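2024-03-11 09:14:02 INFO worker-7 job=invfold-0412 stage=load source=structure_tokens
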């Protein structure tokens, strides 16, 4: 969302400067633009419309501006982006939907995952994150859930891993378009 806001501000300034420079640049070469095309009223109207559009976009997302939502479109690639550029996402709130699963490790420890099956760069597989259930109750394996939490790093032995420290975990209806 921040990139969109920056782009809208940039586009507004660029539109004004291009229109103003174009008006000054025409000096008899080729077919001159009409005077109405670059009138101060038209330029002002364009700027006002772009500013209003940017305000509407900002107000629509002001509630969830700090939440990074991982959507259905290119889900595996968004999860990969999260792993590859973890420093940008650590400490940020992440929200996504997927399948809840409890896995018991060889040492007897239970870990929880919310993931999806899908195509990734190296073929088909699972994409998702380990989740840390602070106060949330685990669901039955295979339940479609929506998880919201803060991405954090934790140490396990001599390795560092990423997980989502859960704020909310809700059961959701599995989308009809999703197949395992």
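2024-03-11 09:14:09 INFO worker-7 stage=emit residues=180
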């Amino acid at each position: 969302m921040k990139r969109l806001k920056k782009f809208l501000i940039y586009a507004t300034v660029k539109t004004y400067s291009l229109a103003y420079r174009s008006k000054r640049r025409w000096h008899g070469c080729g077919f001159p633009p009409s005077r109405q095309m670059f009138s101060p009223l038209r330029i002002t109207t364009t700027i006002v419309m772009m500013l209003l559009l940017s305000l509407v976009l900002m107000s629509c997302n002001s509630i969830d501006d700090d939440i990074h939502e991982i959507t259905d479109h290119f889900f595996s690639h968004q999860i990969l982006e999260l792993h590859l550029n973890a420093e940008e996402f650590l400490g940020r709130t992440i929200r996504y939907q997927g399948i809840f699963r409890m896995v018991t490790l060889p040492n007897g420890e239970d870990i929880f995952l919310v993931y999806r099956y899908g195509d990734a760069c190296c073929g088909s597989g699972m994409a998702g994150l380990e989740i840390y259930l602070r106060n949330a109750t685990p669901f039955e394996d295979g339940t479609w859930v929506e998880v919201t939490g803060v991405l954090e790093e934790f140490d396990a032995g001599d390795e560092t891993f990423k997980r989502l420290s859960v704020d909310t975990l809700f059961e959701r209806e599995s989308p009809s378009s999703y197949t395992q």
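2024-03-11 09:14:09 INFO worker-7 stage=report msg="Helices lie at 2-25, 40-60, 75-84, 86-89."
2024-03-11 09:14:10 INFO worker-7 job finished
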